[in-house]
Amino acid sequence: MPVQLNDCPVEIVLSMLSGRWKIPIYRFLYKNNKPIRYSELQRHLPSISKKILTEQLRELEHDGIIERKSYPESRPRVEYRLSLSGRSMIVFLDKISDWGERYILSEKRGMQQN
Amino acid sequence: MPVQLNDCPVEIVLSMLSGRWKIPIYRFLYKNNKPIRYSELQRHLPSISKKILTEQLRELEHDGIIERKSYPESRPRVEYRLSLSGRSMIVFLDKISDWGERYILSEKRGMQQN
DNA sequence: CAGGATCCGTTTAGATACTG
DNA sequence: CAGTATCTAAACGGATCCTG
């Protein structure tokens, strides 16, 4: 039997963001703030394979962070964008970023208290 | 060649917290707010093996989140506690927790806008 | 007591080829 | 265009036994 993820909200949220490409995908969708095509994501993340891109998008969609809309035209088109709740993650992502910048600076200075 | 982790601070910080037991360990050290022995951690995390516990502690120590102090007495004793910078992670961990609680509530209500 | 060493199954990422 | 399917390799977590 697998060890179940406990019910700590932090662990649940972190697990939703764990995946090699989820933050890069998030950042790209956040910055552009409009529906983005599958092929645009692929072009923007040069070293990702289709299998992985699709996998990460499916997981983000399953967790309600992004929304997917398919336009089955002669040239099939699929667009992704952040959901409202996904977009609201920025409140803590910004805090993480701030902490990270400080941490990285401290490291470079040799961790002198600051 | 491994794909390098890019220089996004969010990715760096999240990678420091990725590991099955890092948040549970963090929470225990944070809550107690004093040096905690290896065996206490082990008792508090019943389903963790020594190998994994040691691994996760080493990584947290390497990333400057916790500090390790060894007392080589007749009965060897090792204590762990959060570093100052580790303890300061609480500012974003609390935000993640808040977001998670809201997200979980929304999920239970069926994602009605809120 | 607090590990280290070894082995092993699962998960994750990636390369490549094929398809509606 | 936007995926599947298949295969391989590396990372991760865990069980078990050994040790200063």
Automatic annotation (TrEMBL), chains A, B:
Domain HTH hxlR-type, residue spans:
8-108
Q: What's the source species for this entry?
A: Cohnella cellulosilytica
Show which residues constitute the signal peptide. Answer: none
**Pfam families according to UniProt:** HxlR
| Tree of life domain | Bacteria
Query: What PANTHER family does the database record attribute to this sequence?
Result: TRANSCRIPTIONAL REGULATOR, TRANSCRIPTIONAL REGULATOR, MARR FAMILY
**Alphabetical keyword list:** DNA-binding, Transcription, Transcription regulation
Is Chloroplast set as a keyword in this record?
no
Q: What is this protein called?
A: Winged helix-turn-helix transcriptional regulator
Keyword DNA-binding attached: yes
